[in-house]
């Protein structure tokens, strides 16, 4: 299994890039959103990858973060969602948008992706809702790429490999989101409803820290009436 590719971009196409790794070229398919974030030909790049094995073909798909890669894997587990559909969803919403849409049951957001119909979008939300919490918690594992600051756990690397490595840092809301989810599940709330409440609270106020996010989520989870 090829889990990560690090090298220099040889060329960029509409939906893939060719990455030269010490003289060996790897063709890696990426979403529109990821493509927009990549540097130009000749520049250094690193991507987490997922290898799709078919009877007559092998395809590598690239992601700037582990969260994006994990959502791709989960989306592919849904009936009717292939690699192309998964990349379309991630390209439209981004990993954070996918997390929020599924946690809130917002299948209309998923349907906005090219080629995704309402029934498929509803199936995605239904089948993955209880898995949203674990992926949202993963987004709290922040890191900094070698030699330059990159948000979340991105692995886009600079062209100077000798630059010093900086220690991982927190990314604010991502860490608060992870900690709030953990606290709510420890209180006995189901992962799906905890994720939904956290996503809704964060959507209403993106400046909330961990304690504020927990309080806001608890208010949303409190019995109505």
UniProtKB/TrEMBL annotation:
<keyword id="KW-0067">ATP-binding</keyword>
<dbReference type="InterPro" id="IPR000085">
    <property type="entry name" value="RuvA"/>
</dbReference>
<dbReference type="GO" id="GO:0005737">
    <property type="term" value="C:cytoplasm"/>
</dbReference>
<comment type="subunit">
    <text>Homotetramer. Forms an RuvA(8)-RuvB(12)-Holliday junction (HJ) complex. HJ DNA is sandwiched between 2 RuvA tetramers; dsDNA enters through RuvA and exits via RuvB. An RuvB hexamer assembles on each DNA strand where it exits the tetramer. Each RuvB hexamer is contacted by two RuvA subunits (via domain III) on 2 adjacent RuvB subunits; this complex drives branch migration. In the full resolvosome a probable DNA-RuvA(4)-RuvB(12)-RuvC(2) complex forms which resolves the HJ.</text>
</comment>
<dbReference type="Pfam" id="PF14520">
    <property type="entry name" value="HHH_5"/>
</dbReference>
<dbReference type="GO" id="GO:0006310">
    <property type="term" value="P:DNA recombination"/>
</dbReference>
<keyword id="KW-0378">Hydrolase</keyword>
<dbReference type="GO" id="GO:0006281">
    <property type="term" value="P:DNA repair"/>
</dbReference>
<protein>
    <recommendedName>
        <fullName>Holliday junction branch migration complex subunit RuvA</fullName>
    </recommendedName>
</protein>
<dbReference type="GO" id="GO:0009378">
    <property type="term" value="F:four-way junction helicase activity"/>
</dbReference>
<dbReference type="InterPro" id="IPR012340">
    <property type="entry name" value="NA-bd_OB-fold"/>
</dbReference>
<dbReference type="InterPro" id="IPR036267">
    <property type="entry name" value="RuvA_C_sf"/>
</dbReference>
<dbReference type="InterPro" id="IPR013849">
    <property type="entry name" value="DNA_helicase_Holl-junc_RuvA_I"/>
</dbReference>
<keyword id="KW-0238">DNA-binding</keyword>
<dbReference type="InterPro" id="IPR011114">
    <property type="entry name" value="RuvA_C"/>
</dbReference>
<feature type="region of interest" description="Domain I">
    <location>
        <begin position="1"/>
        <end position="64"/>
    </location>
</feature>
<dbReference type="GO" id="GO:0000400">
    <property type="term" value="F:four-way junction DNA binding"/>
</dbReference>
<dbReference type="Pfam" id="PF07499">
    <property type="entry name" value="RuvA_C"/>
</dbReference>
<keyword id="KW-0347">Helicase</keyword>
<keyword id="KW-0233">DNA recombination</keyword>
<dbReference type="InterPro" id="IPR010994">
    <property type="entry name" value="RuvA_2-like"/>
</dbReference>
<dbReference type="InterPro" id="IPR003583">
    <property type="entry name" value="Hlx-hairpin-Hlx_DNA-bd_motif"/>
</dbReference>
<dbReference type="GO" id="GO:0009379">
    <property type="term" value="C:Holliday junction helicase complex"/>
</dbReference>
<comment type="similarity">
    <text>Belongs to the RuvA family.</text>
</comment>
<feature type="domain" description="Helix-hairpin-helix DNA-binding motif class 1">
    <location>
        <begin position="73"/>
        <end position="92"/>
    </location>
</feature>
<dbReference type="Pfam" id="PF01330">
    <property type="entry name" value="RuvA_N"/>
</dbReference>
<keyword id="KW-0227">DNA damage</keyword>
<keyword id="KW-0547">Nucleotide-binding</keyword>
<dbReference type="GO" id="GO:0048476">
    <property type="term" value="C:Holliday junction resolvase complex"/>
</dbReference>
<dbReference type="GO" id="GO:0005524">
    <property type="term" value="F:ATP binding"/>
</dbReference>
<feature type="region of interest" description="Domain III">
    <location>
        <begin position="174"/>
        <end position="225"/>
    </location>
</feature>
<feature type="domain" description="Helix-hairpin-helix DNA-binding motif class 1">
    <location>
        <begin position="108"/>
        <end position="127"/>
    </location>
</feature>
<keyword id="KW-0963">Cytoplasm</keyword>
<keyword id="KW-0234">DNA repair</keyword>
<comment type="function">
    <text>The RuvA-RuvB-RuvC complex processes Holliday junction (HJ) DNA during genetic recombination and DNA repair, while the RuvA-RuvB complex plays an important role in the rescue of blocked DNA replication forks via replication fork reversal (RFR). RuvA specifically binds to HJ cruciform DNA, conferring on it an open structure. The RuvB hexamer acts as an ATP-dependent pump, pulling dsDNA into and through the RuvAB complex. HJ branch migration allows RuvC to scan DNA until it finds its consensus sequence, where it cleaves and resolves the cruciform DNA.</text>
</comment>
């Amino acid at each position: 299994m090829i889990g990560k590719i690090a090298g220099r971009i040889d060329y960029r196409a509409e939906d893939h890039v060719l990455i030269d790794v010490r003289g060996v070229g790897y063709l890696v398919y990426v979403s529109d959103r990821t493509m927009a974030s990549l540097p130009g030909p000749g520049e250094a790049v690193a991507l987490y990858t997922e290898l799709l094995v078919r009877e007559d073909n092998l395809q590598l798909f690239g992601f700037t973060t582990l969260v994006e890669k994990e959502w791709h894997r989960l989306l592919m587990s849904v009936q009717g969602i292939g690699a192309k559909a998964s990349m379309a969803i991630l390209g439209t919403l981004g990993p954070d948008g996918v997390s929020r849409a599924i946690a809130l049951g917002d299948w209309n957001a998923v349907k906005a992706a090219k080629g995704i119909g309402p029934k498929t979008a509803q199936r995605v939300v239904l089948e993955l809702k209880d898995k949203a919490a674990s992926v949202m918690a993963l987004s709290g594992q922040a890191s900094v790429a070698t030699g330059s600051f990159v948000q979340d756990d991105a692995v886009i690397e600079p062209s100077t490999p000798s630059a010093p490595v900086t220690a991982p840092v927190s990314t604010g809301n991502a860490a608060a989101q992870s900690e709030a989810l953990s606290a709510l599940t420890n209180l006995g709330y189901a992962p799906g409803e905890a994720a939904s409440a956290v996503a809704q609270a964060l959507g209403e106020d993106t400046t909330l820290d961990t304690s504020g996010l927990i309080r806001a989520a608890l208010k949303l989870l409190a019995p109505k009436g």
